[in-house]
């Protein structure tokens, strides 16, 4: 699909105000920080104060969170006073801390089986999350309003009623450089979406002959399938124009049986598309926790200043020290619409201190090791235990 070029106004960097400045001044101050990876005692004090504000906000507005917090007060202290909620909770329950008429956006998770999470965002929540992404892109030099690019999106072609979080994310990432052309790898068929390998290969070959950089965004599985199809077709390697960028996200979803390691994927991208490793970045995020985690140039997922990352035991849910694998636990005070300021994900991860990465970022970083609950007939705990056994 070819679209006309559009101007880039970077609306996601524009100021946005919390719903109640009198009640949430520290949340505002934290989310207004412009350096995504600044850290130190001042930032830690500010984060703790912002978490206290958002906990009070949800306790006053959400009977669910108020009850959860009251029970937690009788138990062990949680990081920043926020009892965690498992991401699966949002697959079966709609809990709002705002009137429904203040919902600006409704997104769902992109899971391929089972019930999907239903998440609701007010203007502040979604705009502040978008601004976080924009700050990280700005820091990396990826906002280029004067440089057109061609986009290949490994995500869902727009269709009526489509509200998947991954599609929303990939489309707003197109705001950071004006589009000459946009091609979707997952085409709308009228009754769903299908991967179009031949159209995708044709787009890459056409883009390689153009004089502007290419930006490839979306699911890594389908990028891998494209590279495999090119090899099967006997096509020679391409050399995408200088300045091309690949930002992956969304995981392998229903294709975990064919998943390969990131190092192998990145090497094949460089070999077949000519994009250097430092211009290939994976990301982590979810509709339940929209704070962006984007790889540094050494491919580590560092926590930005607006969040804190923990790893919890798969047996006891107690926080674990650095290096020990467990459930990924993400905390941030940015969200006012839903009491999801402390979410335990279904992903297994290991956390490391910032000093263990050779890049210039000092914040902790984590490695995603896999996902618990890979089958409808196996619980998260069983799947997690099996994966953890394989890692020991």
UniProtKB/TrEMBL annotation:
Gene3D superfamilies: N-terminal domain of ligase-like
Taxonomic superkingdom: Bacteria
Annotated ranges, domain Acyl-protein synthetase LuxE: 83-385
InterPro entries linked to this entry: ANL_N_sf (IPR042099), LuxE (IPR007534)
Name of this protein: Acyl-protein synthase
Organism listed in the record: Streptomyces sirii
């Amino acid at each position: 699909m070819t679209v006309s070029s559009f101007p880039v106004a970077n609306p996601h960097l524009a100021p946005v105000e919390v719903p109640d400045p009198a009640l949430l001044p520290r949340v505002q101050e934290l989310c207004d920080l412009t350096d995504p990876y600044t850290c130190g005692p001042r930032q830690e004090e500010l984060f703790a104060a912002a978490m206290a504000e958002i906990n009070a906000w949800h306790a006053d507005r959400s009977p669910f969170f108020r009850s959860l917090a009251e029970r937690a007060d009788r138990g062990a202290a949680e990081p920043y006073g926020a009892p965690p909620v498992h991401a699966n909770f949002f697959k079966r329950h709609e809990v709002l801390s705002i009137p429904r008429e203040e919902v600006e956006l409704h997104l769902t998770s992109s899971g391929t089986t089972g019930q999907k999470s239903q998440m609701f965002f007010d203007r502040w929540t979604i705009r502040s999350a978008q601004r976080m992404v924009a700050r990280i892109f700005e820091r990396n030099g990826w906002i280029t309003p004067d440089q057109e690019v061609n986009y290949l999106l490994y995500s869902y072609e727009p269709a009526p009623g489509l509200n998947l979080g991954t599609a929303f994310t990939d489309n707003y990432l197109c705001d950071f450089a004006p589009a000459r052309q946009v091609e979707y790898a997952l085409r709308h068929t009228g009754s769903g979406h299908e991967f179009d390998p031949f159209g995708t290969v044709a787009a890459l070959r056409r883009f390689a002959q153009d004089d502007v950089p290419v930006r490839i965004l979306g699911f890594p599985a389908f990028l891998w399938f494209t590279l495999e199809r090119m090899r099967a077709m006997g096509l020679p390697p391409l050399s995408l124009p200088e300045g091309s960028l690949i930002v992956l996200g969304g995981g392998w979803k229903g294709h975990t049986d064919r998943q390969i390691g990131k190092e192998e994927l990145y090497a094949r991208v460089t070999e077949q598309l000519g994009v250097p490793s430092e211009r290939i970045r994976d990301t982590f995020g979810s509709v339940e926790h929209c704070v962006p985690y984007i790889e540094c140039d050494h491919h580590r997922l560092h926590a930005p200043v607006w969040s804190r990352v923990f790893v919890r035991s798969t047996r006891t849910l107690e926080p674990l020290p650095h290096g020990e694998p467990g459930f990924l636990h993400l905390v941030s005070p940015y969200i006012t619409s839903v009491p999801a300021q402390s979410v335990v994900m279904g992903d297994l991860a290991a956390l490391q201190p910032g000093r263990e990465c050779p890049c210039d970022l000092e914040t902790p970083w984590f490695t995603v090791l896999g996902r618990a609950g890979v089958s409808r007939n196996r619980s998260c705990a069983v799947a997690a235990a099996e994966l953890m056994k394989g890692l020991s």
